[in-house]
């Protein structure tokens, strides 16, 4: 069973300097590091004009924007080089649409095939581009920061490269014409957690502003009045890109704090009225219930009220499914098309790909567990390879296994003596740094502290990689208890989970990475009833009471695991999510049971 950890309680000094809030709100502010009124005001009242940083705070933004605009003026050929996940695809569309808005005529987008091309601007692809000499400028989005040799090859062919990325850099930066990456140690941009699409958006902002500045300097006053109308259209166009920025930022699981929170808050509004035909159709097919066939979906269905949860669990997996099962160009076309008939066909194709992905993952999960065997305390890291696992799904399975076993997981697709791997990790083990220490055995690698991808050539390198990685995990995790944990915000009375509290909690929306929906510990609840629910009886519905008050609660996907462990009459301590459920104009408080233990539990303190 997961270990319960009660988050560190706010201090009396913290509460004294921020009067006027309830204890629950103090705790949530404290958890998020919102320790002064300025930060709190920005968090509760995101403002697009004041909270979005100047794009020219990026050291190379001016240099990059001048280069791009010069290429557009000369009608040079530009290639946008993206990535195959939701972040990379949305970043590619943002950049392409921006370039075309600024007058570029010769623009192509290339997204690698996950299995055939691998991740990022690799040397083989660079050599091909250098030989063809078709493009004068290449702009990478959501990739490029570790591709030193590839960019060196492009330089030798006279092709300029602008890197926009957010992944961790190696010690040696690529020799690109310009680099925009908030994760680079020497970068002074104030917000470090932008997604790849967020960095692409910052370059788009810089381009629009640089274009206007050039117009104002070069045009006469009379014509300048006309150009101010053009500036207005740039501003409007910029904001209409926020649906893509939101989709990619949520897809990348970037923290929804700081500038990301402002981008996503405004982006949700844009996404719910998006004019993009492909997104409209994707939203419609995503609204299908489990097992419901596409033929039952009426044409022209209205958009529904999108929030981060259904974007995360409905839209993003479908966009990613294109690149996992086939080619991400399918998702690129979907987000780019302005033709309604094409949008319908593409959205339905992606829906089918997502269903295929679900079936493949289910089978691969079982096989991975069989290969890994019993996960004992001495296994600090889980590593396995199989020819049966498509490259596109090893990351998904790694993430699921990491959540289940609370330790780093590395899974690889094996093709002869070539290995394409994906890793997911816990906070105590920076997986990209670990891959860097194994660099001599790797063909390529890149990623974040908790997620990364890599390639290996040769059985000998594969064996040496495993030995080195297991040694690193043993060393760095020797004193870490590798147990699944649930972090609880605070203990609360059942009667305090009421409408008044929800009105306070609602101010923290949108909930996502680094700003999760709060978890509450409620002790000494009586289970009045338990029943299975859902199409296949996979969920549970409860009625709980504290002796004076009773509420309905649900838990999803737990029927098999829990139905024999919890029964009417039991007294339990419960970890709960708390929100509202709305349907047909009705609203009611909704309780979700996250975990339970027999009464009298004592959660550890952080």
What does this structure look like?
This protein has 4 domains: 3-8 and 485-605, Beta Barrel (OB fold (Dihydrolipoamide Acetyltransferase, E2P)), CATH 2.40.50.460; 51-251, inorganic pyrophosphatase (n-terminal core); 272-360, no CATH class; 373-476, Diaminopimelate Epimerase, Chain A, domain 1, CATH 3.10.310.30. Helix 6 (86-101) packs across helix 15 (329-336), helix 11 packs across helix 12 and helix 16 (340-372) crosses helix 17 (391-405). It is α/β, with parallel strands linked by helices and 606 residues long. The protein is globular. It has a 5-stranded parallel sheet, sandwiched between helices. Strands 7-8-9-11-10 form a 5-stranded mixed sheet. The chain has 21 helices and 19 strands. The protein starts with a strand and ends with a strand. Residues 299-303 have low confidence and may be disordered. The longest helix has 33 residues, at 340-372.
The biggest sheet, with number of strands, parallel, antiparallel or mixed sense and barrel status, is: 5 strands, parallel
Give the N-terminus to C-terminus distance in angstroms.
18 Å
Q: What are the segments in which pLDDT stays under 50 over at least 5 consecutive residues?
A: 299-303
CATH architecture of the largest domain: Alpha-Beta Complex
For the CA atoms, what is the radius of gyration? 25 Å
Specify the overall morphology: globular
The CATH topology assignment of the largest domain is: inorganic pyrophosphatase (n-terminal core)
* SS summary, helix count: 21
Level-1 CATH class name of the largest domain: Alpha Beta
Percent of residues in helices: 40-55%
Broad structural category: alpha/beta
Q: Please report the total strand number as a whole number.
A: 19
- Beta-strand percent range: 15-25%
Roughly what is the average pLDDT, rounded to an integer? Answer: 91
Instruction: Provide the domain count.
Output: 4
Strand order of the largest sheet: 3-2-4-5-6
């Amino acid at each position: 069973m997961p270990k319960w950890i009660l988050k560190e309680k706010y201090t009396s000094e913290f509460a004294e300097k921020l009067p006027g809030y309830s204890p629950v709100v103090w705790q949530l502010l404290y958890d998020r590091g919102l320790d002064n009124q300025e930060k709190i005001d920005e968090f509760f009242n995101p403002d697009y004009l004041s909270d979005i940083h100047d794009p020219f705070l990026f050291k190379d933004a001016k240099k990059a924007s001048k280069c791009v605009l010069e290429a557009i003026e000369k009608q040079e050929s530009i290639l946008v080089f993206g990535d195959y996940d939701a972040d990379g695809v949305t970043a590619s569309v943002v950049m392409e649409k921006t370039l075309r808005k600024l007058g570029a005529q010769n623009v192509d987008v290339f997204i690698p095939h996950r299995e055939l091309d691998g991740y990022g601007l690799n040397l083989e692809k660079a050599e091909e581009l250098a030989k063809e000499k078709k493009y004068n400028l290449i702009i990478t989005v959501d990739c490029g920061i570790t591709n030193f040799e590839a960019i060196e090859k492009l330089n030798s062919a006279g092709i300029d490269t602008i890197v926009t990325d957010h992944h961790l850099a190696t010690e040696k930066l690529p020799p690109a014409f310009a680099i925009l990456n908030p994760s680079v140690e020497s970068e002074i941009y104030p917000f470090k957690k932008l997604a790849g699409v967020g960095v692409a958006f910052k370059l788009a902002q810089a381009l629009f502003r640089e274009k206007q500045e050039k117009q104002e300097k070069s045009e006469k006053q009379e014509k300048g009045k006309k150009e101010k109308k053009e500036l207005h259209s740039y501003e409007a166009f910029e904001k209409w890109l926020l649906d893509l920025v939101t989709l990619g930022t949520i897809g990348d699981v970037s923290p929804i704090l700081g500038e990301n929170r402002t981008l996503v808050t405004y982006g949700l509004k844009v996404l719910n009225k998006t004019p993009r035909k492909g997104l409209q159709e994707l939203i419609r097919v995503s609204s299908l219930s489990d097992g419901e066939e596409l033929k039952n979906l009426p044409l022209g269905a209205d958009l529904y009220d999108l929030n981060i949860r259904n974007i995360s669990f409905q839209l993003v997996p479908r966009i990613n499914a294109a690149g996992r099962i086939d080619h991400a160009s399918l998702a690129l076309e979907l987000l780019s098309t302005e033709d309604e008939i094409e949008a319908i066909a593409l959205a339905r194709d992606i829906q089918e790909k997502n269903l295929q992905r679900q079936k493949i993952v289910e089978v691969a999960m079982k096989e991975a567990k069989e290969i890994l065997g019993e996960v004992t305390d001495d296994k600090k890291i889980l590593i396995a390879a199989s020819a049966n696992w498509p490259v596109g799904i090893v990351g998904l399975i790694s993430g699921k296994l990491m959540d289940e076993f609370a330790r780093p997981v590395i899974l690889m697709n094996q093709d002869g003596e070539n290995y394409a791997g994906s890793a997911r990790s816990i906070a105590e083990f920076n997986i990209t740094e670990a891959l860097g220490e194994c660099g001599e055995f790797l063909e390529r690698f890149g990623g974040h502290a908790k997620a990364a991808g890599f390639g290996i050539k040769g059985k000998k390198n594969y064996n040496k990689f495993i030995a080195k990685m297991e040694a690193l995990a043993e060393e760095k995790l020797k004193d870490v208890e590798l147990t699944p944990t649930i972090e609880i915000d605070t203990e609360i009375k059942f009667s305090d989970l009421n409408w008044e509290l929800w009105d306070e909690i609602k101010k923290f929306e949108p909930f996502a990475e680094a700003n999760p929906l709060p978890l509450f510990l409620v002790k000494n609840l009586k289970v009045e009833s338990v029943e299975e629910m859902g199409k296949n009886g996979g969920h549970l519905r409860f009625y709980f009471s504290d002796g004076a008050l009773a509420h309905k609660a649900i838990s999803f996907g737990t029927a098999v695991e829990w139905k024999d462990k919890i029964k009417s009459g039991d007294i339990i301590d419960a970890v709960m999510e708390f929100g509202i459920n709305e349907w047909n104009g009705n609203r009611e408080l909704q309780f979700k049971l996250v975990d339970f233990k027999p009464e009298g539990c004592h959660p550890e303190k952080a």
